[in-house]
Amino acid sequence: MGSADTGDLDARLSEYRALAVSRRQRRFRSNVAAGACALDLVTLVLIAAQVHGPLRQLVGLAFCLIVPGWAIIGPLRLHDAALEAGLAVAASLAALLIVAQLAVSFGAWELTGVDVVVCVACLPSLAWQTMERRRLQATS
């Protein structure tokens, strides 16, 4: 085996490893989006069922910290899990502050209505990101 063969083998192995890492990251991102989508739908169901109390508060808190931010940050594919997680929380809080300020400014402050609007606005992005899993399986 010559040095040219070894170099070619190393290049192919590096390419394979990079592809495997990319697929794992895409699968992880898709799984997070699926979880966020499920949390979004659970929030909508709790709103529709007019559930109040500790369960709704916990689900609402988790929703507010994760869902809007992941709908914004998820498609960016930053390839750094810690950065994506931190930005998702920051983007969630920032987006909710903007939506709340707009609702107050326009005299449309109704917390349940704002919650429904945010849930519905996040669903398309989360559903698109969740479909990444199917695209991955189709290419396998």
Layout of helices and strands:
Blueprint: H1 3-48, H2 54-73, H3 81-105, H4 111-130, H5 132-139
- Domain count, please report it: 1
The first-to-last residue Cα distance is 31 Å
> Which percent range fits the helix content?
over 70%
List the secondary-structure elements in sequence, H or E: HHHHH
Query: Uncertain segments of ≥5 residues (pLDDT<50)?
Result: none
Main beta sheet: none
Radius of gyration: 20 Å
Overall structural class, as computed from helix and strand content, comes to: mainly alpha
Account of the 3D structure:
This protein is mainly alpha-helical. The chain has one domain. It contains five helices and no strands. The two termini are 31 Å apart. The model has no long low-confidence stretch (mean pLDDT 89).
Features:
single chain; 0% strand; mainly alpha
Provide a compact summary of the structure:
With 140 residues, the protein is an all-alpha fold. The protein has helices at residues 3-48, 54-73, 81-105, 111-130, 132-139. The protein has one domain.
